Amino acid sequence: MMRRFAAALLALAIAACAATQPATRPVAAKLPPPPPTEVRPVTETVQGVVITDPYRWLEDQTSTETRAWIERENSYTDSVLNSLPDKQRFAKRIESLLNTDQLGAPVIRGGRYFFTTLLNLHAGERDWTGHPAHRSCPDESEAHDERRAGGRQRRRKDAGVLRSGGRGG
After folding, report:
1. Cα–Cα nearest to 152, from 109, 131, 121
2. What is the C-alpha to C-alpha distance for residues 142 and 47, in angstroms, rounded to an integer?
3. Can you tell me whether residue 78 is helix, strand or coil?
4. Percent of the chain with pLDDT over 90
5. What is the distance between the alpha carbons of residues 102 and 80, in angstroms, rounded to a whole number?
6. Distance CA 156, CA 1 (A)
C-alpha cells in the first residue's frame, strides 16, 4: 500500500514539473552572437612575470577603433534588450531600486560633521526644511538646508545655521 502511494506521489510530482516547463525556448537560445572582438596580443613582463593581454588595444578609450568597438557592442546590447518581452517592467523595477536616498561622505567644519544627502522628493514637499544636527550639535543650533538639485526631483541637503529653538518653515 505504501509503495503504491509513493509511486503515485512520484508520478504526480513528475507531472507537475513537466507542466511548469515553458512552452517556448528561452530568449537566450534565439539571440544572435555578439559582434566579434579582434584579438591583438600585447606581452609584457611585470616583476619577472610574463603577462599577455589579448585585448589591451581596448584600453585606449579615445582611439577611433575602441570607440567603434564600443558603438558595436552598445548596438548589440540595445537590440538584445529591446527584444525582451518584459523590458518596460524590468526597467521600472531597476529604476525603483536605484532611486533611493544617497548619503555623501562626512565633512568636518568647525569641529562638527556635516553630510550632503540626495533625497527623493514626493509631491507636496517643501523646498526647505530645518532638521537639527543631533550628534554633532547638541544645542540644535545647526540645521540642514534642503534645496532642489534639479534633474529627477531630488533634493540636496546642505548644512545651514538656525538660531537655537528656530525651525524651518
Report:
1. 121
2. 54
3. helix
4. 27
5. 31
6. 71
3-class DSSP state of 62: coil
What CA–CA distances, in Å, run from 146 to 24, 38, 100, 120?
52, 51, 16, 11
User: Grid coordinates in use for 98?
Assistant: 536605484
DSSP state of 2: H
Neighbours of 100 (CB within 10 A): 10
Write the pLDDT tens digit of every residue in 55-65.
999 999 999 99
Rounded Cα–Cα distance for residues 17 and 10 (Å) = 11
The mean predicted confidence, pLDDT, of the chain is 70
DSSP state letter for 53: E
In the chain, domain spans: 102-161
User: Which pLDDT band holds residue 23 (cuts at 50, 70, 90)?
Assistant: low
Helix, strand, or coil (residue 6): helix
C-alpha cell at 166: 528656530
Residue 157 near residue 146, CB atoms below 8 Å: yes
Residue 84 has pLDDT above 80, yes or no: yes
Sort residue 59 into left (φ over 0), alpha (ψ -120 to 50) or beta.
Answer: alpha
